[in-house]
Amino acid sequence: xxxxxxxxxxxxxxxxxxxxxxxxxxxxxxxxxxxxxxxxxxxxxxxxxxxxxxxxxxxxxxxxxxxxxxxxxxxxxxxxxxxxxxxxxxxxxxxxxxxxxxxxxxxxxxxxxxxxxxxxxxxxxxxxxxxxxxxxxxxxxxxxxxxxxxxxxxxxxxxxxxxxxxxxxxxxxxxxxxxxxxxxxxxxxxxxxxxxxxxxxxxxxxxxxxxxxxxxxx
Length: 218
Fold this sequence. Notes:
Strand content: under 5%
Distance between the termini: 72 Å
Number of strands: 2
Shape: elongated
Number of domains: 2
CATH topology of the largest domain: Tetracycline Repressor, domain 2
Structural class: mainly alpha
CATH architecture of the largest domain: Orthogonal Bundle
CATH class of the largest domain: Mainly Alpha
Order of helices and strands: HHHHHHHEHHE
Helix content: over 70%
Largest sheet: 2 strands, antiparallel
Strand order of the largest sheet: 1-2
Radius of gyration: 21 Å
């Protein structure tokens, strides 16, 4: 019994340390996200990140090899969040044109508006930052495009239809992702038009859904 109790105490202690490590890891990521968005990736030092996260610089380098590694891991989390938001919207109404409307609006209203720091990092601060960062950024968009393409193909299958060209669905998927990126960048990063974004998002989504309807040959 004593040995079992000792094992249980050790296990609880190990779990607590694991939670503390995870919490420290997330705190560092959150601090980096805040500083990268506010001061820019180039303008932020590892010392500043450590200071905001209330950890030593040595602790920071225990979790991350360098600033580029930190940015890559930030991007991984942002990419997951984008797919989570859009995928959830699709799952509530797909496969249908309404599903594309919901997913498009969710991208703008549930990702872009509540997370301006994430938006700034993936669309601005991660651009031109080295091969590792570019590979991570490319992966975000390739997965996003693949999700949209899959939904387009499922839509055609449900409707018993086909697209006008063998490239139609692929081109539409790339266009939708590219357009949403540019709209978000233009109205939230180049120009702060947060109040106008819901109406702008509706226009962008209507435009893309209209394009899908036009290319879908029943």
